[in-house]
Write a structure and sequence with these properties.
377 residues; alpha+beta; eight-stranded mixed beta barrel; seven-stranded mixed β-sheet; 7 helices; 15 strands
Length: 377
């Protein structure tokens, strides 16, 4: 082969190599786009599949150091109360009322009174810096006794409950990223979970600033240890109640009339579903208040649901003076809890030391589930 032919072959070889490199680069680019598309699709599918409408538990607070009295009061109402434990931060402890449908009531107290806000003693004219405080940062430290908060079932972190809610329209609610929590049971077993809670309105991602939304909007609790450890449905006697309670019929929130539409929109974003009903409530003391209802989902590993269906979340404005007084003194939050009972003769209203309970017979709850409405007491 002469010099000219050798140069031509070398040139062709270089050209082929260049084309091969370009082909490889093009393939890698297409592959990267394909993988990115699949990842985004999978993430979207996972976010669409995660439910944020499964009621987990309701929190009932009593004053510091009064857990034993609270347990007695609930037992006097005919509930079976089982031991809980002390939370990981050591600030709170609880006992539980477990229902056959997989939901439960958390009877909570602070083991010691939360420290009040204290302003530095020196006169304002001599201060060289901002006033210091030693108030508790616990989200429930300023809550009045009674029904103070409610939790929906979360997960072990994937997909993120917070990211799922934050991505939904209208985007007026933001949830903080999941944080670990836990509790040591009376038998020594350590439970662990992930909590995602709503950020105060206008707050930064670390929760600083903004208004209190705890109790207006749910928080989420996802188990890292088996849920059966946290919600002991076994032995079955744990969920057998003298008052024939079977589960939660409804959670009713009160909100101010001027905040009703915004509050409803926030709950719609959190739940990922529009309300099933929008009407004026009827019945004694209902006045002219507004009400919307969301049908929730059953606990996936709950026990007995019977024919009465899943719980309902109700948002309403005040319909009588008692409800208006509640809003004036406590602000928006849980006004009453509906409990399904097997004894039809028990229907009516009862009181915990600080909260309102409405007994609803299983037959009434079944009719409610079928009709998509709840008669207010």
């Amino acid at each position: 082969m002469g010099p000219v032919e050798g140069i031509r072959v070398l040139s062709q070889t270089r050209c082929e190599r260049k084309n091969l490199v370009l082909a490889i680069l093009e393939y890698m680019q297409k592959r990267s786009l394909h993988l990115r598309h699949n990842t985004n699709t999978n993430r979207d599918q996972m976010s669409a599949s995660v439910s944020t409408r499964i009621l987990d538990h309701i929190v009932h607070l009593t004053p510091p150091g009064t857990l034993e009295q609270s347990v007695k009061a609930f037992r006097d109402l005919g509930f079976t109360v089982v031991p809980g434990g002390t939370h990981a931060d050591g600030k709170t402890a609880n006992a539980l009322v477990v229902f056959a449908d997989g939901t439960y009531l958390e009877l909570l107290h602070f083991t010691h009174a939360p420290a009040p806000a204290l302003v530095a003693a020196q006169p304002s004219t001599t201060r060289t810096g901002p006033a210091t405080t030693t108030h508790s940062t616990h989200p429930w430290s300023k809550k009045q006794p009674g029904w103070i908060d409610y939790a929906f079932l979360g997960n072990a972190g994937s997909p993120s409950i917070a990211d799922t809610i934050n991505a939904r329209a209208p985007g007026t609610v933001r949830y903080a990223g999941e944080v670990r929590g836990g509790r040591r049971r009376a038998d020594g077993r350590v439970l662990e979970w992930l909590i995602s809670a709503p950020l105060p309105g206008g707050a930064s991602e670390d929760g600083e600033g903004g208004g209190d939304v705890r109790g207006r909007l749910p928080f989420f609790c996802g188990d890292l240890t088996p849920r059966d450890w946290r919600v002991p449905l076994e032995p079955r006697s744990n969920a057998a109640h003298a008052n024939t309670a079977k589960g939660i019929a409804h959670v009713r929130l009160l909100t101010a009339a001027e905040d009703f539409d915004a509050h409803a929109a926030q709950l719609t974003q959190v739940l990922g579903a529009s309300p099933s009903d929008h009407s004026t409530p009827t019945g004694a003391g209902s006045g002219s208040g507004q009400v919307v209802r969301w049908e929730l989902e059953r606990q996936p590993r709950g026990g007995e649901h019977g024919a009465y269906g899943a719980p309902v979340l109700i948002l309403s404005t005040a319909g009588d003076e008692e409800e208006r007084a509640y809003l004036r003194t406590r602000g928006a939050g849980i006004y009453e809890l509906g409990v399904v009972v097997g004894d039809a003769g028990r229907e009516g209203v009862a009181r915990t030391p600080y909260g309102r309970v409405v007994w609803e017979s299983a037959s009434t709850a079944a009719a409610t589930a079928a009709a998509g409405s709840i008669e207010r007491s």
